[in-house]
Amino acid sequence: MFVARVAQDFRDANSRQRKKLVGMGIRIREVDGSFSLKSILERAKQDLGETMPLVTPILEAVRDNGDRALRELTHKFDKLDIDTFYHPVGEWKGSIPSDLQAALEKAKQNIETFHRAQLPTSLDTIVSGNRLGIRYTPIESVSVYAPGGKALYPSTILMGVLPARIAGVPHIQIVTPPQVGGIPDGLYAAAKIAGADAIITAGGAQGIAAVAYGTKSIPRSEFVIGPGNKFVTAAKIILSGQGRIGIDSPAGPSEVLVIADDSANPNWVAADLLSQAEHGEDSAAILCTDSMEFAKKVSAEIDKALVERPKRREMKTASIQNESWILVFPNLKFCVDFSNQYAPEHLEIQTRNYPELFEGIRHAGSVFLGPYSPVAMGDYISGTNHILPTAGGSRIFSSLGVMTFLKRITYQEINRSSLKELYPHVKVLSEFEGLDEEHGNSVKVRLPE
Questions:
Q1: Which GO terms describe its cellular component (predicted)?
Q2: Is 379 annotated as a binding-site member?
Q3: Per-residue confidence at 106, pLDDT binned at 50, 70, 90?
Q4: Any idea which architecture 13-42+253-395 has in CATH?
């Protein structure tokens, strides 16, 4: 009797929670001439206008006072007192569960295989009788930022470190916020598996400043990559603007856009939308479809899931209610057109003709094709990179890869006969630009009398 009563109480509580959420879920809109897509296209981009003035004094403090400022800022923001920031990965003596070890090793294998295939070949060719070419050289030092606020991300360590190591970067360090009890073994293990040299326990803008300027205990990095909150993003933008560091791309809230027709499984699509909402209140999950009936089925599955899967419910609900949409277009061509305008971080295409629709995609961070390709596969194990441009950044930026860490050096070897043959053109062009006295002359003096 008691068991039955408890079960009934649980069902009643579930029912009350369901009623609370029903009608409060994702918004469905039929897209026609009367509905503006402007606010959706703009989404919850990080407004850094108010953040920049807050970050600048933090950067200056670390620049001027190094480790002392870093300790004070860590105490202020993280409520922790840190004696040592630099932790060589080789000194770690801990262990992790065997299943986690196996998962990290498999992820490494797939990421390495995909990224090794990206290595470019040098170019050596002849143009107008002269030898011209391209040689690729790696950046000297890189810091990979691994967030540590709402969750820990050993997967981000693999995604950031492995391509840099494949590119030949000599020194790679992880920057991550300090944790009560020290660096988790899972992060240490990921860093060791990926081949990082050290972990820096300094988060936020102060952590970025530490690796950008360098301190007595922390080596300076030339390049900083990885996602973070608005303070991390602001720090990266400011420091890259000063020429202190190179960065991958400004990062904002996570996002997914799904194009699906009525052949897709509404439960699967709902799960994919919620997997993005799980990242944070400002994450965006967009479904574009040509079927209102399918849209309603997905909405119902989302409401059901928010009741049945309570972990991070408040965060997921806020994302679904405030930043997410189901948009019903006249046909799938309109869905593709909207996706190219939106330029999502993650794009899923779950339709009967997904190969055909994929041909029309011009702007996306990473694309997941067919019903068995959820974003989570790319997040962890498929081998593509999950460090991607957000907030429409895929219109001009690409996913992180081996080329992120390589510089292209062009070279030329001009022969004597070509110098003579091409000089008249140099003379005309340098005279037109008013630089003939020295530019033109530097060629002329090499010609035979």
A1: cytosol
A2: yes
A3: very high
A4: 3-Layer(aba) Sandwich (3.40)
